Amino acid sequence: MRRTDPIIIGAGPAGCAAAITLARGNTRPLILERDADIGDALCGGFVSWRTMATLKRLGIEIAGHPITQLRVFAGTQMAEAPLPQMGHGLSRRAMDSALVAQAIASGAGIERGVAVRHIDSVRAQSSALFLATGKQDVKGCERPRLARDPALGLRIRLSPSPAVRTLIGNAIELHVFHKGYAGIELQEDGTANICLALRKSLLTDAGRDPATLLRQLAADHPHFGARMAGFDARTSIDAVANVPYGWRQQQDPDGLFRLGDQCAVIPSLAGEGNGIALASGESAAQAWLAGASPKDWQLRFAHRTARPVGLATSLWHMGESRLGGPMLAQILRLFPTLATWMAEATRIRT
User: Fold this and answer.
1) pTM to 2 decimals?
2) Which tens digit of pLDDT belongs to each residue from 118-162?
3) Fewest CB atoms less than 10 Å from the CB: which of 116, 207, 277, 304?
4) Smallest Cα–Cα separation from 221: which of 318, 326, 151?
5) Residues 62, 56: Cα–Cα separation, whole Å
6) Which residues contact 153 (CB under 8 A, 6 or more apart)?
């Protein structure tokens, strides 16, 4: 039987933002989520000032570890600049828990432990589908995978010593090296979130062992190594393969509202993945309530993401080259206002 109310696939920030907005529009959206419990998704964990404003607009009052500085390391170069406004280091577990609770309180339904294997299995169940599965694709609407040396994501969470906490402080750090980078910040629970984007060939050269690769990077890059104190065989490593950084959905989405990483994958060095996810969910729900088609909304949202995704992709490519990373850090050290501008320019416009 076909539902008249929307179905949302995925209970992350994009899906919950859509559910809250739709429920406020006098519909009863249903979220289908594959995980039985709220986890801690692989994510940089940075929430910008604009994203905090979006959360507040959705009815969520939450705070993380305050972040006021941007710090960039590359080789022997280090640059530091103030952020345009204060951001927060916030775990996905904390943010997603608040979003799910607000979606339910707003009137949305949620079914957990429901894995959508193929998009055709839910097409006939609703008049509107919102795809919000994050970095995980659903068969029948996969994103392109064309890179010769694709990117992969690694994430660890460490309980830092007082000395390491002092090193990181109120900064979001970007450690740039050949074929990859690591983003580091403290979070609301006192842990250090260390999220890396690396070329697959780096992992291959390390014998396909993520722990070996992380130890090599820590040994080769002393500033990064200092933040990795406490990393050992007991440390859990989360991973996701074939991340299509820089991709945006700019064509007919075949009747779907594609949200978050399913519509625009900004390189994580920008710290705007959460911002795009929330903005896409809220915007797509508003468009559907106003009678807009998925195609029309998708093209408009692709235009909104063009500048932040394009700039972040250019910075990523520059930073992961042998000479580009140190050059970028040197430029930002000489012109710190440029770093502040970049931090603002990689935010999605509201």
Assistant:
1) 0.95
2) 999 998 888 899 999 999 999 999 998 878 999 999 999 999 999
3) 207
4) 326
5) 8
6) 42, 135, 195, 196, 197, 198, 239, 240, 243, 268
